[in-house]
Amino acid sequence: MGSGTNIGRVRGLGSAQEGAHHWVMQRVTAVSNLLLVLWLVFSLIRLPNYEHELIIQWLSSPLVAVPMMLMLVSIFWHLRIGLQVLIEDYVPDHGVRFGLIILLNFFAIGGAALGIFSVAKIAFTGVVA
Amino acid sequence: MAGASGSESNRPLSPHLQVYKWGPHMLVSILHRVTGDGMALVGVPLLVWWLYAISAGPESYEYFLSWFNFYYLGYIILVGMSFAFFEHMFSGLRHFVMDAGAGYELQTNKMWSVAVPLAAVITTGSMWLYIVFKNF
Asked: Are A80 and B124 in contact (CB under 8 A)?
């Protein structure tokens, strides 16, 4: 494509100069997902039981709360890019596509915020009496 | 877009899914998208609900568990999500190799495409066997 003509740039056509960013971040978060979700799977299946009290105690440890929060960031980042590709592939209408991508961003940021806040609340308020 | 007016119908059409002969590479590619989007739309909201329910207190957690134990619903979803995770994980590892430019030879590519879902089924099965023997 080259760098486009001057008038093309003024009109906002041609390369947006950031095409590789999503591609790279999808792979960076894939690696962190690999480590963090495997950590979650192994931790969860090794817990002796899933009573509220024990889960609270488990999640209160910084060595659990911190990877859990990092995992939420990594997962939601990864799924935001992945679902955006899904929308871009299957929704031809530009207006609907734009709206769905906005909803996706609300879902990704809102979901991550709710998850992280919940973990933080458990970690900071600790064991319930 | 296939135009409704017959005058545009002589344009070449892109072949779609049902035109191709199914092969393992096609299956792995489709499974990668299905498992990824499935986890994003079902598994992750469930995870966040679980974390929220824990943080909101014992009653909220009980409510979560009442849905989880509703006709084994939670177990059915977790078996599905664990397979989705392992399938997506092995498939993602395959993508890393292909990103490096390797594994495109026909036989090699086919072999790994068969290996990915097999590994996912075996890993999922082993994990649930471990869970069953540990807890029941």
From this structure: no
Q: What is the pLDDT of residues B22-51, one digit of tens each?
A: 889 999 999 999 999 999 999 999 999 999
What pLDDT sits at residue A4? 67
List CB contacts of B37: < 8 A, sequence separation 6 or more: A82, A83, A86
In sequence order, which ranges of chain B are alpha helices (DSSP H)? Answer: 24-38, 44-56, 58-68, 73-99, 106-135
Residue A62 is encoded by which pair of tokens? Answer: 């910084």
Contact between A30 and B92 using a beta-carbon 8 Å cutoff: yes
d(CA A93, CA A129): 54
Grade residue B19 by pLDDT with cuts at 50, 70 and 90.
confident
Helices and strands in chain A: count of H runs, count of E runs: 5, 0
Q: Which value, in Å, is the radius of gyration of the alpha carbons in chain A? A: 20
User: With a threshold of 0.95, does the pTM exceed it?
Assistant: no
- Whether A1 has a pLDDT exceeding 60, the answer reads no
Distance from CA of B126 to the nearest CA of A (A): 12
Question: Mind telling me how many Å the CA of A121 is from chain B's nearest CA?
Answer: 6
What is the chain B residue with the closest CA to A32? B89
| Residues with Cβ within 8 Å of residue A7, at least 6 apart in sequence | none
